[in-house]
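Form 12-C: Joint structure prediction
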Amino acid sequence: MELFTPEFGLVFWMFVAFLGLYFILSKFAWPFIIKSMDERAELIDKGVAYAQEAKKQLDNAKAEADKLVAEARGQQADILRDATKMRNQIIEDARGEAAVEAKKVAEAAQLSIEQSRRESEKQLRQEVSVIALQIAEKVLRTRISDDSAQQELVEKYLNEVESKN
Amino acid sequence: MKKVITALVAVVVLALMVWGYTDAAHHREEAAGHSENVEAGQQAGDEGKKLDIDVKGIIFDHLGDCYGWEVPFSHSKRIPLPIIVKGQDGWHVFSSSHVTGGDTFEGFKIAKEGDHHGKVVEVLADGTEVRPLDFSITKNACGIFISAIVVLIIVFSLKRWYARNGMKAPRGFKGAIELVVDFVYGDTIKPIMGKDAPKYGPYLLTVFFFILTMNLLGLIVIFPGGANLTGNIAVTMVLAVMTFLITNFTGTKHYWLEVLWPDVPLALKCPVPLMPLIEVLGLFTKPIALMIRLFANMMSGHMVVIVFVMLIFIFTELFNVFAGAGTSVLSLVLSLFMLVLDTLVSFIQAYVFTILSTMFIHMAHVHEEHEA
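Section 2 - Result
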């Protein structure tokens, strides 16, 4: 049958067309296309690998940062606690020192008061004896002549004054 | 707007059909006188109604090759193609329009009957018809060149994209082509052939795209398509021979050792070379299977579609125009289904041819270390 017998002319043209097509494509097109596709596939693979690596690094950096923050928080708390302690200590120390100083001042004051009291006592005694002598002089001038008993009385009173002080 | 265009097209087609029917009826009446004597001679004892249309002839005309390319809605007009023949007195080149009408030109005509039915024959002085050396650009030859050009355009458009855009992935049609290239090369040829893939990849990709383009062009009914290319045994034979040549000329020593001295008990190959004989036979059956598989698949697809369409005319002849019109709905639905199926078959057969060629070529490259 005609369908099953290859026609020579057609075989020839098919042969020509196919060989022509093959040589043109295999020389100018297929290697280039295959190379381009392979290169792109490689690029995409590399890109994905790079992105994964970058993500991993990013995750690591985040964890590191969190750790640093936590550490810093701890240090901050420590520092604050130390500072409070130190403040209390300083206040305490200051208080103690102030008390000691105050006591010293008070003692010094008491001492000087005592001293000045003694001095004024001494002075007063001298002044009183002077005054008493003057009074006695005046009394003597008026009444000395008559009464030695009265002199004795004056003496007695003077003693009394003295002992009273 | 779309609906209006669709309606217009439908009306035009219907009008043409009606015109065709009435025209045909006229012709039949006129030709009634002539055909009676012819038919009377042809069929003695033929019972029932004899069909006016030559169903088998039409089907085989459509499946076969011809000089000149048919145009829609005309039986006589053809796109002329060059006829190149070497007769008794040397080469002749002329347009097919000189002979498609049945005339004789420069001593050549298209045979109406006999062994060379439908082919250009040379009419010798004594009236005998002999077949000259025929290198005509027939419809199929022209279709082959159109397919080759389509493949070139498609592949080079993809290449140009890569040359211009570098690493950017192609979009649209080029993206689809790239997908197919990747499917055939990256997912089929490369895994099978391994390091040999870059060497034979271009051949196999060319085969795949050429067959696919020819298959799909064959499904388009008007001019650039419509030639039953891969359903023609000459075309598939050339492709199969190519694979055969590559397989056997690039085969390794080990491959020939396996063919001529296979690893079987000595009794099977020594006194009577039974196994080597089978292996050598196998060398030829493999490409022949490739040839027949593609040819038969594509031809049967075309044939079924044509038969469904012919049903319309058979029913019109047997009954009347209305029966034919009713059949046409069913026929068109079935034809459409077959064409859609053929689109799938086009791809599958191109792929099967490629993958089998890949495996045959790869099997010829056995090395010692591959031995199980």
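Section 3 - Comments
Chain A touches chain B through 34 residues (CB under 8 Å). The CA atoms of residues 138 and 144 of chain A lie 9 Å apart.
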